[in-house]
Structure formats: structure tokens, C-alpha cells
Design a protein that fits this description.
156 residues, alpha/beta, Rossmann fold, 5-stranded parallel beta sheet, 5 strands
Length: 156
């Protein structure tokens, strides 16, 4: 039914709930799973760019520190996805792992389009009200911005 399923993962137990469902869907047919982790560029580090009163040297040092942080997160994400991929491959499921940088929702939608993904399976944190208004929901933005069907698993 689905040839390619995308599972966005952030390393949390909640996001891995989606992996279980995707694995179940993939095991019943010739489906490949695409595991995607997006390394978010930290807003607090980006906010330091262009601060008045800072010398070029200080800004360059801050950007170098931010780059090192992103490199560490990328290495951890790669190890995490590779570990999950081994388990899935042992179950006979073809797996592709991908790390990207930037906004999670944009990268999920773009990757789904680029790879002609048939279904995105993801979990939602279940935030509501005030917190959801200010924090937003990656899942909501993926549903609204994308053209790919999204299977959403609730937090509970």
C-alpha cells in the first residue's frame, strides 16, 4: 500500500511511538522506512548574531561554538538513527536515515516531497491552549504545509 514511509524522530520516547506504528505498517508490505532527525538551529544562538556592541571576533567565536554544538548534535543523531536502522533492518525492513539542519516542519515537508514519500507517521506532544499557542506544533505545521498524508499518533 505504501512504498515509502517517513518517520521524523527527535530522540524522545514519544517520537519513537510513531516508529512502532511505521514498522507495523512496513512489515506487512514491501515498504521502506525513512528515519529523519532535524537538528534545530537554536534560536538563542541565532539571536546573538548582530547584537550591537559585540566585536567581530566575539561573534565569530560564538558562531564557532554554535557550529561545534550542532556538530555534536549531528553525531549523536546519526548514532541514534543508525542504531534504530540496524534493528529495523534485522526485521527485514529497508531503512534510510537522514539528518538535516533547520526548522523541523520545513525539513519534514521538503524531504517528503523530494523523496516522494507516501505517508508521514509522527507523534504529537498533546499540548493545548496557551502553551500550544506560543510553542506551536510541528505536527500541525507539517499537516498544513505538506501534500503528503500524515498519520498522527496521540501522546497518550
Amino acid at each position: 500500500m505504501f512504498a515509502k514511509i517517513l518517520v521524523p524522530l527527535d530522540g524522545s520516547e514519544l517520537s519513537e511511538k510513531a516508529l512502532g506504528m511505521a514498522q507495523h505498517l512496513a512489515s506487512s508490505s514491501a515498504t521502506s522506512l525513512h528515519l529523519l532527525q532535524v537538528i534545530s538551529l537554536r534560536p538563542e544562538l541565532d539571536a546573538r548574531r548582530g547584537s550591537s556592541g559585540e566585536s567581530i571576533t566575539v561573534l565569530e567565536m560564538e558562531q564557532a561554538a554554535a557550529r561545534r554544538l550542532i556538530d555534536v548534535q549531528t553525531a549523536r543523531g546519526k548514532a541514534y538513527l543508525d542504531g534504530l536502522a540496524v534493528q529495523l533492518q534485522q526485521a527485514g525492513i529497508p531503512v534510510t536515515t537522514v539528518i538535516r539542519e533547520g526548522a523541523a516542519d520545513q525539513n519534514i515537508v521538503e524531504y517528503a516531497k523530494e523523496q516522494e514519500i507516501d505517508l508521514i507517521v509522527m507523534s504529537t506532544h498533546g499540548r493545548s491552549g496557551f502553551k500550544r499557542f506560543f510553542v506551536g506544533s510541528v505536527t500541525d505545521r507539517v499537516i498544513r504545509a505538506g501534500e503528503t498524508p500524515v498519520l498522527v499518533l496521540p501522546a497518550s
